[in-house]
Design brief:
The protein has 476 residues and is mainly alpha-helical. The protein has 19 helices and 4 strands. The termini are far apart.
Length: 476
Amino acid sequence: MKKNIFILCLIGVLTSCDVLDQKPESSFTPANFYKNADDAKAAVSAVYDPLNSTNLYAQVMWILQDQATDDAEWGNGRSTANQPKNDLDKYTFTPATNTFQAIWSTVYSAINRANAVIARVPGIPMDNDLKARYIAEAKFMRGFYYFTLVRLFGGVPIITVETTSLNDLTVARASADDVYKLVVQDFTDAEAVLPATYSVADRGRATKGAAKAFLAKVYLTRQDWPKAAAKAKEVIDLGVYDLWANFADAFLIANKNGKEGVFEMQALSGGFGEGSWMQGYMRPNFDRVNGVAGFGDDPATENLYRAYRADDKRRNVTLRLYSATSSPAAPASVLFPCYVYKYLDPTATGNGDGGNNYPIVRYADVLLMYAEALNEQTANNADAYATVNRIRSRAGLPNLTANLSQAQFRDSVLLERRLELAFEGHRWYDLVRTKRLVSALKAQNPTIPVAEYHYLFPIPQTERDVNPKLDQNPGY
């Protein structure tokens, strides 16, 4: 236990960690900690650990990725007491909104953990193949964290060496292009070394397929369609992944890290996760499971609910629409009582002990990226149609009509991504990279003051207060 406490304190940036009234039995420092394979494994696990923190995928990331889109709506008869969430939803946020500081500081702390592994694990006497894998995992995660930052904020400071003191912390922002170069290099390095699969004990760690999938996503974001299609096809050709027969099966706790999971935030799995908070946060407080009330975060918009056809099998798996006469009954004050249902853990007895993983990249996402990238190169691509229709067939929908124009197919894929991947953290990025954020938000709620400068979030004001080299994104 003392070693685990040391790891979490040591490898963060500007992180305070005090264990009161304890006399240490031994003293760990960066110089004497990285001694054997167990130390290396613990350090790599600490790089993954922030994924399930409340400042990332335990809450803040999916709140930001949903509330700032047309899929979720704060208010509308619900409490507006949580100001940061309401500000994200209504686009009244500022550089001082603490959501952005929470993400920024947590991600840079995680990057420092990755940098420490990359710098220190090579010197450990241990199995060389395992050593190479641990370094590749750290590079994958560093690429993932920088990809998160650059998509949210644009260019950010690039730090690729371990921070060990409070000196020289004022680093200027690099260009977005330079950040993307680092991201591509890290994922490429990881892709070359990581295994395609793991034993049961290590499932959930980064794989070759995950690195390829994120490269496909990077290239899709950068509109490098040939490379996006090629990388997505490499994931498909691995033969590791497949769709579950039923859409609901993809979210069964028994199936997490299964054939459809490319990369997931781990909950109560693999020795480096905690319980999932989605169980508690997303359920409404009037719907109690095992006597536990939810918080009602991320309520779905009527706009999203109506986007599903009535015969779409995904709708009632993803969402639950309550009414004044349902069991339980929705309060009359909630104008459209529709909430996320796909992450329900019926066995959980507390808000933070759900067993649900969060699917950061699911195989269906890879298939839709592949279809989109093919269409952007050539209209009426047979593989693009066949790939999308695999997704639609599972949802119980008819095939897309052949001979759609390139623009019509593009619209169809974007809608398919919205319905298939709802509340999996993709909608904001999809709207941003396709330049549809403003029009989509205005269609959902014309009163939202969303503007072109909102295609990036603001650099946190607290960071700019301590680092004068950080300039602000335009518009803020």
